[in-house]
Amino acid sequence: MSTAPDKLIFLTLVRTADEANFVRLLIASIRAFGGDWRLCPVWVFTIGPRPDLAAENVEIIPLDVPTSVKQYFFADKVFACAQAEALAAPEVQTLVLIDPECLVVQPPDLFDLGAAVDTAVRPVHIKNVGLSPDEPLDLFWQKVVEVVGLEDVPLTVETFIGQEPIRAYFNTHAFAINPAKGLLQRWFALFSQLVADQAYQTAACQDVRHRIFLHQAVWSALLVAELDKQRIRILPPTYNYPYNLHDSVPVARRAQSFNELTCFTYEERTLQPDAISDIKIAEPLATWLRTYFAKSG
User: Fold this and answer.
1) Which CATH architecture has domain 5-296?
2) What local confidence, expressed as pLDDT, does residue 182 receive?
3) Do 211 and 72 meet the contact criterion of CB atoms below 8 Å apart?
4) Alpha carbon of 284 to those of 102, 131, 266, 276, 281: distances in Å?
5) Would you list the DSSP string of 87-114?
């Protein structure tokens, strides 16, 4: 193990009672399958009533999102990340943001940044609002690129499902970042700037899709602008595997078992083992899930 448990912190966000249930399962999975990282602190940022998440090394942190961005898609997530960075002690080397509807099923060793890299991220699953390298920048990306201080996005990645080359555009279900870089607070500042830019919102963010994914676009461009390419760790497909999009994953890339993954997202899909027929669940995970749901009942 290259990083002590107190130098890596997991953080997540709870907005609703359902998300509180998801986070209980997420924390339990980290404690059961996290390996060297199983005892790391978990910071749970909360909006609204304080959820009952009493557990060892879990801190509940109320979140008061600024009114100026409060109603915008995922502003709370970006603000929670900025707050976590501000709260992190100097000895913390890694913050791992992980969404409530994610499960950790193997030690997430590649989230440990140590001294080797400054971030660990996955490319997006589908192109969505991303752009191919040979497409001109559209109005949406032009402004995103401008505010981070670039003329274009020089790094390319490949989408997981479509296997399409695109300008760097990263998934935010789970990622790791070195808080000493100050990029999470910078992310919120730039995101807030673009949300407040009414001309930009009217011209480039008229549709819901662009508003939903503005936070991801700003984060992606910021990482490329501020970090050397070799300091960006592109995680393998065993991280952030999209079980919610399982049927759309090409057969050659489709996971055969949950157990072969490190962490995955399952948005709006059940994790009750006896209700799952499209992917295998081997031991010890199958029994662990049955026992968890029986107890939480």
Assistant:
1) Alpha-Beta Complex (3.90)
2) 98
3) yes
4) 18, 41, 19, 16, 9
5) H--TT--EEEEE-TTEEE-S--GGG--T
DSSP state of 117: -
Q: Where are the beta strands (DSSP E) in the chain?
A: 8-14, 42-46, 58-62, 94-98, 102-104, 119-121, 156-158, 165-167, 174-177, 232-234, 241-242, 263-265
- Which residues, at least 6 apart from 120, have a Cβ–Cβ distance to it below 8 Å? 110, 111, 113, 175, 176, 233, 235, 239
Q: Which of 21, 30, 16, 19 is nearest to 293 (CA)?
A: 21
Its pTM stands at: 0.96
Classify 54 as helix, strand or coil.
Answer: coil
Amino acid at 10: F
Q: Give CA–CA dist 126/253, Å, rounded.
A: 14
Burial class of residue 4 (count of CB atoms within 10 Å of its CB; 0-12, 13-18, 19+): exposed
Segments making up each domain of the chain, as ranges:
5-296
pLDDT tens-digit series, residues 177-234: 999 999 999 999 999 999 999 999 999 999 999 999 999 999 999 999 999 999 999 9
